[in-house]
Write a structure and sequence with these properties.
The chain has about 270 residues and is of the alpha+beta class. About 25% of the residues lie in helices and about 40% in strands. Strands 1, 2, 3, 4, 5, 6, 7, 8 and 9 form a 9-stranded antiparallel β-sheet that branches.
Amino acid sequence: MEEDPFVTDLSQFFESFNNGSGEGNEQVENTNEGVKSIAKRALSAAKDLGESLETQIAVIQEHLEAFPTEKQLNETINVNGEEIGNYLIFTKGEATLKADAETTPDDAEIAEDLSNLKEISGDASLNIEVNPTNKLYSAGSAIKDLKFRIKATGNVKIMANENPDEAPTITLYYTESLSIGLSFCNSEGDGGKFVIKEDANYSETFTGDEFAAATNAEDSDELIPDLFKPNITISVKVYDDNDQLKFSDTYESIDEFITAFSPEEPTE
């Protein structure tokens, strides 16, 4: 059976994306170097989206290196107009990252072990719209149209306690809205479309001790998701060729959504 050109092209793109970071997966301690290493790997992988990103990434890497001294970030990535393989394009692709830190004393660099950090706060945003290029409509693919949208914002604030023996207080907030629409048609002319929408939000304040307890516990795989569990709603709608609604349902968690569309285990 001949492979679908759209699926093949997208698979090749993401394969090159995953292989393009040039960084290993070694574990790094939770220090300035660890934070910078994680950021570098993410930024390095992003270079695969296009040569126009290289200058943006290089500048951000320089600023990350200087953050322990400058204690300030104000970064933007823009991939508007960048193609994703041959058949998709970022009609909008923008991300921002801002961060500020305060130390004791005020003019000190951030210590390697973060022991002199008084406060650190950060804000991030993501705004992405992906649409097909004109090439998709003549590619002979079963995928006839695809639209992807995501908007997300978030912020975090970590405040050291006046008593250095007590863990800092962490406040985390984010909100996200995502939608995917896809229409398809097989070789016999049968098709339809489905639309998936997801909205999520999270707001919580907890201590560093609570975070450490969750990450270090034997059942951390259960405690960490509980600590960061968002309010989430996922809706799914399926239409036939005549735009008649054939299926509609709403789910209150990712697990519920996955379970709904997972094949049932055979019973003995």
